[in-house]
From TrEMBL:
This is Multidrug resistance efflux transporter family protein. Pfam families: EmrE. The keyword S-adenosyl-L-methionine does not apply. Keywords: Membrane, Transmembrane, Transmembrane helix. InterPro entries: EmrE.
């Protein structure tokens, strides 16, 4: 349950991303700058944290040992996650993008067979936790309900451009996160891993920033300030909290799915923030019903995780035969 609490707290800070990205789009800021500036601002904060904890030498050794893996999974987990999200923010309010983003909950469950675990000295391919998948599908129903009102009032092209990139991001984030956990094997801590992924993805952000500079010019002071807030809140605080939670349960697919499902609470924080700060219209009854379904799904995940925890405790305390 501690991991779920960490996941929900991370969602609160993640919500800043969706609110401020939409605000920057409303003010005419380019999504290219919104995406790249976040990671530029994350880098110095993470460097200070890791150097203070005297973990940079170890991180450097890990990255030099498997440079291709770090580059690949950091690109998938960070670039293919955040660039599509900022692009989608140009086509709909933050709560819509955040709602679609909850597909990552189902995506995370479906990715299980791509990973190998070691049990009693034997390697075996992980299986999809069916109960977790069913609960995640409840959340998926809520997501679909959220999209219905928007689908009726938005041109198909805009709807497509606002949803498809988020679907890509929804699969890329858990895939990159889980693969990097597999590559690291618990040898480095969460701060080191987030810093390593930020450094490994930096070439892509630099290329994106250069392209932005040649096409739209320099970002405004407002966009730089808001990107700094996103970098600290979502990039450093939320990402670290979420990665700590997933690290703790990385060997149990059911619990991992439940932690990833905590991201469904983001949409609640986004709606409250956009209504209060940006004056966005409150979602209509169908969308609110969808939100209710998402909350129910999240509660089911929490309950199922609690049961798994109790079973695990009973099993570990039983005498050895």
């Amino acid at each position: 349950m501690k991991e779920i609490a960490l996941g929900i707290l991370a969602s609160l800070f993640f919500a800043v991303t969706f609110i401020l990205n939409h605000a920057m789009e409303m003010q005419g800021g380019s999504w290219l700058w919104s995406a790249s500036l976040r990671y530029f601002f994350m880098l110095p904060f993470l460097l200070v944290i890791v150097f203070y904890r005297k973990g940079f030498t170890q991180l450097s050794s890990e990255m030099k040992a498997q440079p291709v893996a770090w580059m690949l999974w950091s690109f998938i987990g960070f670039v293919l996650f955040y660039a599509p999200l900022t692009f989608a923010a140009a086509f709909g309010p933050g709560w819509l993008v955040s709602g679609t983003w909850q597909l990552t909950i189902v995506a995370g469950v479906l990715l299980a067979p791509l990973f190998i675990s070691v049990v009693a000295g034997k390697t075996e391919r992980q299986k999809i936790p069916l109960i977790s998948l069913l609960i995640s599908c409840v959340i998926l129903v809520g997501i679909l309900l959220i999209q219905i009102p928007q689908a009726q009032s938005v041109p198909f092209k805009s709807l497509l451009l606002g949803i498809l990139p988020v679907i890509i991001a929804a699969f890329a984030y858990p895939l990159g996160n889980r693969k990097m956990m597999e590559v690291c094997g618990g040898r480095i801590d969460t701060y080191q891993r987030v810093l390593g992924m930020t450094i490994a993805s930096m070439p892509a952000w630099i290329i994106m920033a250069i392209y932005a500079m040649t096409t739209v010019g320099l970002p405004s002071i407002s966009q730089v300030t808001q990107s700094l807030l996103v970098g600290i809140s979502s990039g450093v605080i939320a990402t670290t909290l979420f990665f700590i939670a997933t690290d703790r349960v990385r060997d149990h697919q059911g619990k991992l799915a439940a932690v990833e499902a905590t991201q469904s609470t983001e949409i609640l924080f986004v709606i409250i923030g956009e209504v209060l700060l940006l004056g966005i219209a409150f979602p209509d009854p169908i969308a609110l019903a969808g939100l209710g379904v998402i909350i129910v799904g999240m509660m089911l995940h929490s309950y199922y995780t609690m049961i798994l925890g109790k079973k695990s405790a009973v099993h570990s305390s039983s005498p050895t035969q």
